[in-house]
Amino acid sequence: MSYTDGDRAPSPQNQSRAIHTMATNDQPETADARLKDYLAIARFDHGTKHIFVVPGIILAYMLRGVRTEALVQSLIFGFLSVVCIGSANYVINEFLDREFDKHHPTKSGRSAVQRRMSGTIVAVEWATFVLCGLACAALANKLVLMVACVFALQGIVYNVSPLRTKNVAYLDVLSESINNPIRLMVGWAIVDPTSLPPGSLILSYWLGGAFLMAAKRLSEYCEITAAHGPALLVRYRASFANYSEVSLTASCISYSLLSVTFLSIFLVKYRIEYLLLMPFVVALFTYYFAMSTHAGSAAQRPERLFREFRLMAMMVALVVAFLFTSFVDIPVLATLSGQHFITLE
Fold first, then answer.
1. Cα–Cα distance list, 343 to 182, 333, 335, 336, 340 (Å)
2. At what angle do helices 142-159 and 71-96 cross, to 10 degrees?
3. Which of 124, 146, 186, 192 lies deepest, with the highest CB count within 10 Å?
4. What is the pTM of this model?
């Protein structure tokens, strides 16, 4: 296409906006959802997030020992509980977000956006997953059941109006990331149904998850704003109206510092050797933040993080260091927990 002297070629940004407008405003008539579409909104491909249950299992075993008489049963039904309730939360998340997701460059391709879904069928699907999840939790033990109830309630608070905390800046991050310590507590309860993890560990897990969620929003903010402008971003998620690139970056720094602070408290109190893990943890936070600033970052799609080779290599190094410090005593590190001064006389 050529342009006369009086015309200006549209910029790539304007072209992108025009394409997106045509894609969202000139949709063909929506077809009814099929069985596979209802299964798709359960997001079974996000099951990798349940890996956050595993540290709870390991730490409970290391610090408390096995306190349940039916460990294998608790393991099986505890994991099934997390998977079912996690899927239940995703079902209402995707269905209730369908009018907002159509403004997102990639989420607009989700089944709930592309297909016409029955609210009744979705409600039955959600209830089925919740009931199955709670039944599995009850077969694990009472503490797993209690935590599973909180997990299911969190999905309602986060997604359903009038609460719908995902629409409130900062509260959206904190309410979504609470899933991390919930998974930690499920793992812990599987091994020890008589106690909960230390508060310092719960807070570290929660704030670490907040860092991950804030980094995800930072990545979305930068990419969508650059390609489509801030107006589209706010139509996708109302909380972005009160965010900026600076505030999201600052929140990432705050959450990471607080997470490391509480983690340090836990490490010093419960096994001093774990202090050697801190360089690995800091490296992970740093790399993840840097990764979130890249276009098309996997930080926007956490279920794909396992495809990030460098990130996985760092995780493996952290796991190896964790196993080493779990079984090898280093008495000299005990001096770090006491008061010592560098004297000049």
1. 46, 20, 16, 16, 9
2. 10
3. 186
4. 0.85
